């Protein structure tokens, strides 16, 4: 009976706090006191609460996403609101407590609040530490990933590597490492924007300038070495450095990538596959999920977009392969470089539909796609003379 009475009292406190926040005090100091009380109450709510407790939470959940609160002119109020909402996210995990549009604004506010980790102390710093811990504890960063808040994730990565310091508690370092590792491991295709900040953090010279950032980047690279293996070599090349310019872990991952390249790629010769078991289709199926991504360089040999002819004469098998674009354009932000970087994916053209005027592209992972090459950006990997290679695919491969 006593436990039931205590639970009822707590539920009434939650309801009362919610009602008060729905009509918040005009005074900023009073509002901050109320938000502190709300956060304390929410920290006592367990995950998967009872139906009655959840009902008691509803006024608070509504009040915390009010525009006047989320977009308050006082930074302390916004950071405090973000901290309260992260407690709500903890309670409802793994389900998101709000719709996608609201979650975007919430995550934007949370990342803004995480920027206060650069402070040595103070109210905002303490709230930022709490927000960071909740994101790591309930893996809400994966919700960001599911909702494709890519630019926000990039911003968060950069923020972590730029703000981490030796005088931060070990928990801050561990939470950052966990969040970054989770995102990389769960990302289907890791964009260059996430890799470049990591590489910069472990570039030789930074070990003395920002040793804690170096250690964070090194730990994340170490943890995610297997996942990063296909992505690191082209990223290093894109940055214009040698693998020896970075921490030892970068050299190790790139070396492993070089050793396994023949297993993950799609080997094709100018003479075509053998007639026994080396068909292009079989090789593609053996490498499913291993599509090779190649960043566009400043000087691309034999760029083909803009060519007038896009017909059957393009059905061919070059001495290496044709690289056709998969339309995924990344805009690099906050990186000292601002450009659009299309990723090209390795594959071969297998046929042409004269009615639709589209080519069938067989990618190295076994995927097929019909593309209008007159509207796509694509290039030849090989520098061989195009005319000498015409027709080899049609004559040598049956798909």
UniProtKB/TrEMBL annotation:
- Protein name per its UniProtKB record: ARM repeat superfamily protein
Query: Which InterPro entries does this one have?
Result: ARM-type_fold (IPR016024), Pds5 (IPR039776)
GO term, biological process aspect, one:
cell division
Pfam families, sorted: PDS5 (PF20168)
Q: Where in the cell is it found?
A: Nucleus
Ordered alphabetically, the record's keywords are: Cell cycle, Cell division, DNA damage, DNA repair, Mitosis, Nucleus
List the record's Gene Ontology CC terms alphabetically.
Answer: chromatin; nucleus
Q: Which PANTHER family did the record assign?
A: ANDROGEN INDUCED INHIBITOR OF PROLIFERATION AS3 / PDS5-RELATED, SISTER CHROMATID COHESION PROTEIN PDS5 HOMOLOG E
Listed transmembrane segments: none
Q: Where is the segment annotated Disordered?
A: 265-305
